[in-house]
Amino acid sequence: DNGAKIMALSPFAFETITVSTTVLSLTSSVYVPTGGRPAELAIITPDDTLGNNLRYWPSATNPSAGADQGHLWATGRIPRIILFGIRNIENFRIVRDGAADVVISISYYD
Length: 110
Description:
Helices cover 15% and strands 38% of the residues. The protein contains three helices and eight strands. It is globular and about 40 Å long.
């Protein structure tokens, strides 16, 4: 049961990233702290009330805005993305696919 596993994890780090027209990954120094354990789970939420879209890939492949490459994240309809496992966190890539930048908030758990 993934719900029980999430409840057993503890939050240890947080970051915000502004997603624009350049493909971004999550910040490794945040989700793998010096001397600490790497994150096992990341919860990503958009701080966007206008419904600007994003595109992402969970496989270290760069998505392309406006080219229908990568998964479409309609931020006005999908409230969050949950990444399980350090490999998925490391490989996550995201780019803006709308008219405006979108700030995303990420909480990391170990």
